[in-house]
Amino acid sequence: MRDVGASALGVVVMIALAGAPAVTFAEEALPSGRLTMERVVALALERSLAIRAAEARGSLARGRLRGAEVLSPFNPELSGGGGVRFGAEGVTAEAEGGLAQAFELGGPRRRRIEVAEAQVEAASERVEAARLRVAAEARAAYVEAIAARQILRLAQEAEGLARRLHSAAEERGDAEAATDLEVNVAVIEWSAARRELAEARRRLAEADLELARVLSLPPRATIVLPEDLPPCPAVATPLEELVGRAVTVRRELAALADEVGAAEAGVALARAEGWPDLVVSATYSLEEGRDHIVGVGLSIPLPLFDRNQGEVARARAALELARVEREAAGLAVEREVAGAHAAYVAAAEAAEIWGEGVLGRVEQNLELLELALTEGSVGIVEVMRVQRELVAARRDGVESAAAVHSARARLELAVGEEVR
Questions:
Q1: CA separation for the pair 14, 376 (Å, rounded)
Q2: Cβ–Cβ under 8 Å, residues 167 and 411
Q3: Is the dihedral of CA 131, 132, 137, 139 positive or negative?
Q4: Pick from 65, 59, 116: nearest CA to 263
Q5: Counting beta carbons within 10 angstroms of the beta carbon of residue 225, is it exposed (0 to 12), middle (13 to 18) or buried (19 or more)?
Q6: From the CB of residue 327, how many other CB atoms can be counted at a distance below 10 Å?
Q7: What SS3 string covers 303-351?
Q8: Does the pLDDT of residue 1 top 50, yes or no?
Q9: Which pLDDT does position 264 carry in this prediction?
């Protein structure tokens, strides 16, 4: 399948909505000049709030790991007290003090670390998944923004042509050289062209807002884009290989696998936390001002009733849920890749068919009809029919080129890496 390029028709349009002053790239520390797709993707990755949020979640996970690595969740407890004794022998001073330390049994610290480490890995994978999603969104927004500009240019040309034909029809009608049918058709065609022009402006405004969102720019940012879409390299990798690669490299699947590991460690942690904590203490006391007493104590709860059964059951359920979600996600990825590949193949074939001289033949027909109209051998209605076919063909060409880019971006997102 050969490389599919964009339509040669296009226009450089600067996004500048009326109202508040536009925020230019210079003010936003962004490069001047026309943006390439690669630069748009790089800017989106640099400025994405979604990526920053994913990175913040990673910081939270690392914070939990740091807490899990603490040697003991229990600090030593120091106690003390004193007083006087009033007895038959008079008044004597008494004092006491103690130091106690609790120790975990069953190894819960190691299990907490395993849970936290798996959560850190999952968070890191989700950061990379967010980067892939942002890059795909940036490519799609870039393609749509250029396509919307090209569609607007075509709509403007179509409206101008329809307006001129409308004027010509009215002049011919005044000279009784055109029928009422021709005049009415000219009015209808001009109205339709104006409606399509308004729709093209709406589409451009939405495309501009989406591109600004992807780049984390204000809605009134000034952006300059190329006239045409860059060529879209063809994808030659077989579907079976793409599916195999996706199952291996998709970051979301890796994150879910890490979450399964965290859930497995969570079951072991819940069991370990069912063990009682051992408390070791040392005491010192002074009685009647002269007797020094030193003692050592041990205490441990008897787990007759609460052995953390509830948390163990919850952890097992969480593990089963994580495994089911991982399996379901794997199947969903296979379907996603298959669907994205089918969409890309269809879009590339449609663009290739459109590029095989269809537009040139329609343009030639229009030129021949305009000449025949001048000679009076055909009517305005026939010219308008071919004009609408030409506008539709040009628009289809732009849509086809944009569809190929969008389908490729969707396929790369589904696979989880660049495809060739």
A1: 42
A2: no
A3: positive
A4: 116
A5: buried
A6: 12
A7: CCCCCCHHHHHHHHHHHHHHHHHHHHHHHHHHHHHHHHHHHHHHHHHHH
A8: no
A9: 97
120 has which bridge partners? Answer: none
Mean pLDDT of 193-202: 95
Please tell me the pTM assigned to this model: 0.77
pLDDT at 266 over 60: yes
Residue type, 88: A
How do residues 182-193 score in pLDDT, each as one tens digit?
A: 778 888 888 989
Q: Are 225 and 98 in contact (CB under 8 A)?
A: no
75: amino acid identity, one letter: N
pLDDT band with cut points at 50, 70 and 90 for residue 329: very high
CA dist., res. 99 & res. 395, Å (int): 83
pLDDT of residue 113: 97
Closest CA to 105 of 251, 307, 283, 246: 307
Give residue 3's pLDDT. 44
When pLDDT is cut at 50, 70 and 90, the band that residue 148 belongs to is: very high
Two tokens at 151? 């569609």
Q: Pairing state of beta strands 278-287 and 291-299?
A: antiparallel
Residue 287's DSSP bridge partners are 291
Q: Which sign, positive or negative, has the C-alpha torsion 374, 389, 202, 18?
A: negative
Q: How many CA atoms lie within 13 A of 349 on its CB side?
A: 6
**Which pair of tokens denotes residue 99?**
């130091």
pLDDT class for 366, splitting at 50, 70, 90?
Answer: low
Structure tokens, 395: 């628009």
Q: Name the least confident of 102-106, 177-181, 320-324.
A: 177-181
How far does Cα 169 stand from its chain's mean position?
52
Q: What secondary structure letter does DSSP report for 110?
A: H
DSSP 214-273: HTT--TTB-----SSPPPBPPP-S-HHHHHHHHHHH-HHHHHHHHHHHHHHHHHHHHHHT
Reduce the DSSP state of residue 194 to 3 states and report it: helix
Report how far residue 169's alpha carbon sits from residue 185's, in angstroms, rounded to the nearest whole number: 9
Give Cα 370 distance to the centre of its chain.
49
Give the span between the Cα atoms of 9 and 148, in whole angstroms: 12
- For residue 11, the model assigns a pLDDT of 26
